[in-house]
Amino acid sequence: MNTLxxxxxxxxxxxxxxxxxxxxxxxxxxxxxxxxKGEGTIYTYTVVNVGFGHLAAxxxxxxxxxxxxxxxxxxxxxxxxxxxxxxxxxxVKFKHMDERHEPIFQAx
Length: 108
Known about the structure:
By secondary structure, the chain is mainly beta. It has strands spanning 4-9, 15-16, 31-36, 39-48, 61-68, 73-79, 91-97, 103-107. The strands form two sheets. Strands 4-5-6-8-7 form a five-stranded mixed barrel. Strands 2-1-3 form a three-stranded antiparallel sheet, with no helix packed on it.
C-alpha cells in the first residue's frame, strides 16, 4: 500500500511533504518523519484542458489544492474525478507518488 509521508517540525509543529533538513517556518532542524492518513477535501481546483511539459498527455485533468485531514494543503492532480461534477469540498484520498515524486490523489 502506498503511504503519504512527510515531516513535522518538533519545535513549531509545521507540517511538510517536501524533503527538508530544516523547518521552513522556524528554521529548526528537529524534524520527525510522519505518515499522513492520505484523506482530504478539495480546497480549490481547476480543470486543465491543455497541459504542458510532462503533463501534456494527461490533459484534461483536475489540478487541485487538497486540504489534508491533518491541516496541510498540498498541490496535486486528482485522478478518476468527474470533470463535469468535481467541486470544492469533494472528498479525495491519496493514490500514489508519481514518477516525479509528486502526490497523486483520487476521488474518494
